[in-house]
Write the structure tokens for this entry.
Amino acid sequence: MQPLILFPRDIMSKVTVSIIKADVGGFPGHSTVHPELMKVAEDNLKGKDILTDYHVTHCGDDLELIMTHEEGEDSEEVHALAWDTFKEATDKAEKLGLYGAGQDLLSDAFSGNVRGMGPGIAEMEFTPRKAEPFVAFLMDKTEPGAFNLPIFKIFADPFNTAGLVIDPSIHQGFRFEIWDIKESKRIFMDSPEEMYDILALIGAKSRFVIKRVYPKEGKLPGDEPVAAVSTEKLYQIAGEYVGKDDPVAIVRSQSGLPALGEVLEPFAHPFLVSGWMRGSHNGPMMPVSIKNSVCTRFDGPPRVNALGFQLKNGSLGDAADLFDDPAFDPVREESAKIADYMRRHGPFEPHRLPMEDMEYTTLPGVMKEFEDRFESLK
Ligand code: F6R
Ligand code: MG
Ligand code: MG
């Protein structure tokens, strides 16, 4: 007689989703990724025992590795595989004469973890439900704080997420883990109880960023994240301007979590983010399909891609290109109009970032040339 397996391994074992990304060479300029680099990445991840599954794609000029495995977060082997893949892709970029080959690889030698070495990472380990839908969000020409507004809306705004009001399984709200990326500290805050305090922090998106979201009580384990965002800041690692820190995020969805349509809804508004040309301008976020993930106009405008997956036994299955939908045409048009409006300000704020944020761009290099010519007015 067959033994009775009450909890088959595929339901019980935890899975880790890791998105690791880097700009290792643009084609042309900083606009997109050459197909040959994606091929190198595919070949490098194919047949690797450490991974359960993977999907290679790009967002603008960033090469994106979406991987599943059972090694947990910060796995040395998974990070080493990603690092080697970026190295191989860099070699290819050099051979093809692509722009800025190896741009985001800020160190020569791998030392156990890609954190702090240039690539961006969003990772989360969790116990998959029977059916586990999640979205991989990929952004280019912006910074980690660009996720604050949409992640807040998904998990805390009743005008965005109807379920917060009408579904008992999410009515209690969610817990936010917020990082102060300047002071390197974090705080946990609950929504809706502390909603105004959460907003007091995350409205300052260049400093306070949502790192993870957790369920409170209910169907899902409270210690397993339901959303995770990359928070790496390149200038903090390199000590100088090396481009913006184009972020990625993972958001789980449905039954006890916001529905897929609630997860995508914040992107129906082309909210302003910082980044765009030379990482120095405010501009509208434009949701696009992967084929339109090419940053052209003024090196932008900032883009976001959304790939949907249904996890099955740790495998990703097919990727659904969720913004490849005419329902998002109006926001793309609005975003293009806002881009026009912002561009007409030329070098003036608030199109150009405030001085505090320009500190981490190439502007100080220009100002240094004439700083001794200032005369005191006192
Ligand atoms: C922004 C970005 C681009 C470059 C710009 C200048 O994140 O990558 O807008 O900053 O194209 O690039 P360089 O300095 O490489 O000529
Ligand atoms: Mg680039
Ligand atoms: Mg980029």
